[in-house]
Amino acid sequence: MKKKVVSVLLTAAMLTGLLAGCGAGGGDTQTAADNTADTAKTEAPADTAQTDSTADAADTADTTADAGEEVTLKWAIWDKDTTPYWQALKDAYEAANPNVTLEMVDLGSADYMTVLATELSGSGSDFDVVTIKDVPGYATLVSKNTLEPLDSYISAAGIDLSQYGGVDKQVTVDGSLYELPFRNDFWVVFYNKDIFDAANVPYPTNDMTFEEYDALARQVADPTFGSQIYGTHFHTWRSAVQLFGVLDGKHSILDGEYDFFKPYYELVLNEENDQICRNYADLSAEGLHYSAAFSGGDVAMMNMGSWFISTLISNIQSGEYDASLCGNWGMVKYPHAEGVEPGSTLGTITGLSVTSVSDHKDEAFKFVEWVSGAEGAKVMAETGNFPALMNDEVAGIISGLEGFPTDAESKEALSVSNLYLEVPYAENVSEINDILDTYHKSIMNQEMSIDEGIAKMNEEVGKVLGQ
User: Fold this and answer.
1) Which among 226, 234, 337, 322 is positioned nearest to 276, based on CA atoms?
2) Nearest one of 237, 268, 428, 430 to 335, comparing CA atoms
3) Which of 360, 354, 377 is nearest to 178 (CA)?
4) What is the predicted pLDDT for the residue at 248?
5) pLDDT over threshold 80, residue 376
6) Pick from 30, 106, 69: which is nearest to 307 by CA?
7) Chain mean position to CA 288
8) Which phi and psi angles does 324 have, rounded to 5°?
9) CA pair distance 243, 261, nearest whole angstrom
10) For residues 5 and 417, is the Cβ–Cβ distance under 8 A?
């Protein structure tokens, strides 16, 4: 499962003042994809929808537009009025392809994939392009034969799938690919430089084993009541703990045998017992959001998704976060197991698919290809979001951005070597997710021992997998 090295740099998600704060966290089953979807409506003001890419696309329309007849493509999305990149992508593509009109249909965000599955199952569905919000929903649509296999289109267009860092392989179904990614979020470690400076301890690095990460957290932690400093912080999502175990490229949540989770549960629970991090049960009861934990100034390190970068910058600039507590921050790559390549991390994708009922499949795929390619990536960057495909032009957007850390380690942290999906494709992935969530809670609440909880995961998921 080793993925070809791909440079993943932060886009313009932290353009000065562009983004508002992250919304409150969801339930324990919320993942990176859920978080970014839930906060889409606060990611940028609506007036950012018109980007420079639109004008650039118009200038090159004569070379990129098809000379064919007028075509209207019906496109399923969510939160149209509060997510600026939808309109920005539409404007830029129509400028480059004046014979194409994109009709966006907002299905809402809360139950988007469920509503979409219902729409596509109906005899009257006439969508041409649909946005894929999550892998479980993708699995449902593929199983219902509502999506068009893209392999022949990809081959004819000469698309290099390695530019997506190997995530295409993780959503390939029986040898066929039914979506191309256009948005990506990945996990890094945020840290508070002032805490390390006060403790006279060197900053985290981009090449830390889990043992080194644990030792560093213990060095800077201070359990003194009233002036407590936590060496690290783990949010209540199971992805913040369990999925350390998949970074070796040998395991995934689909395995059915989860003994590889054990050392990471031991690490976190031992840190809890030693007051190196906050207690899971207290976090759950209080509903403390990870952003509040880090911005409070008493957390030295926190593993979290790249979507938090924009929230952190904008809220410090607006004064919502006290700059004296968290304004001097940096970030590094995820820690890794011994022998695993630095820069291996977790990610989530948002993709586009062509429907099997479309009357304009060729035109629909051209749009999917464009959004998932270099031009679409630029539009995504200019609206403050993370494209799945990166190039020098898009990467250059971040150089000199006000509020982004200027140290070399923070910039290097945005280079990802291996990107593993939090939730890879499987027909029964929703059931597996539910089981792992349930026993994660039991272990972290110490209602079960680590061994007992993992044994139940193995047993229950084994039933789902027929093992």
Assistant:
1) 234
2) 268
3) 354
4) 92
5) yes
6) 30
7) 21
8) -70, -20
9) 8
10) yes
Any residues with CB less than 8 A from the CB of 81 and at least 6 apart, and which? Answer: 46, 106
Tokens of 135: 């892998």
Phi, psi (rounded to 5 degrees) for 2: -60, 130
Bridge partners, residue 305, by sequence: 187
pTM of the model: 0.77
Tell me the C-alpha distance between 160 and 182, whole Å: 14
H helices present in 225-287, as ranges? 262-273, 280-286
Helix (H) or strand (E) holding 354: strand 344-354
Looking at residue 398, its pLDDT comes to 52
Report residue 194 as tokens: 């002032």
Q: Which two tokens stand for residue 438?
A: 């349930």
> Which residue type occupies 296?
G
Question: 362 or 66: which carries more pLDDT confidence?
Answer: 362
**Whole-number Å distance between alpha carbons of 282 and 273:** 13
Q: How many CB atoms lie within 10 A of CB 407?
A: 13
Kindly state the tokens that stand for 114. Answer: 């469920």
Q: Give the separation between CA 152 and CA 197, rounded to whole angstroms.
A: 55
The mean-pLDDT minimum among 32-41, 220-229, 456-465 falls in 32-41
Query: What is the C-alpha separation between 419 and 438, in angstroms, rounded?
Result: 26
CA distance 448 to 247: 25
3-class DSSP assignment, residue 127: coil
